[in-house]
Design a protein that fits this description.
The protein contains three helices and seven strands. By secondary structure, the protein is of the alpha+beta class. The protein has a four-stranded antiparallel sheet with strand order 1-2-3-4, with helices on one face. It has a three-stranded antiparallel sheet with strand order 5-6-7, covered by helices on one side. The protein is extended.
Length: about 160
């Protein structure tokens, strides 16, 4: 390391600044941010998923719950109870600098569509597939529906 331009102290060029906070762009900054985020979520009473360290959830005594999915610096919060989402957003904004982008329309190259009347949520990777096909110069393809075998059953 060396002293930043404009902060060089004549006679003490061998000295450097001590960082009190991780700087964005440093290798350890992501890890430090995740550790801070993880500590905050656990302090809020959330449980980290055993299967994915970036998935947190909390179930309340009345049976309501929320899920929080973290990917790099994007967060997706899911719950049937909008007040839980609002409460969590306000807690997060008090602790971290953040922007609320409203209802999610896309995450991790997946499109999200809602049918609120029917209470259904649809996920699609259509745009991702189009992009991948374009990258490999496969633009004139013939789309074909592939159905599951009759004996194949999906479970919750």
């Amino acid at each position: 390391m060396k002293q930043p331009e404009g902060f060089v102290v004549p006679g003490n060029e061998q000295l450097v600044c001590r960082l009190k906070k991780s700087l964005y762009g440093l290798k350890q900054a992501r890890r430090q941010w995740y550790k801070r985020f993880d500590t905050f979520m656990i302090a809020q009473g959330c449980t980290r998923s055993r299967y994915d360290n970036c998935v947190y959830f909390r179930q309340y005594s009345d049976g309501s719950f929320f899920y929080l999915l973290l990917y790099v610096d994007d967060i997706l919060i899911a719950s049937k109870d909008k007040s839980l989402i609002s409460k969590l957003k306000s807690q997060l904004s008090e602790e971290f600098e953040m922007k609320d982008l409203g209802a999610a329309k896309k995450i991790l190259s997946m499109e999200i569509q809602r049918d609120r009347k029917a209470g259904k949520l649809y996920w699609s990777q259509g745009c991702y597939l189009e992009k991948a096909l374009g990258r490999f110069n496969i633009k004139n393809y013939k789309a074909v529906s592939t159905t599951l075998a009759a004996h194949f059953r999906l479970s919750a």
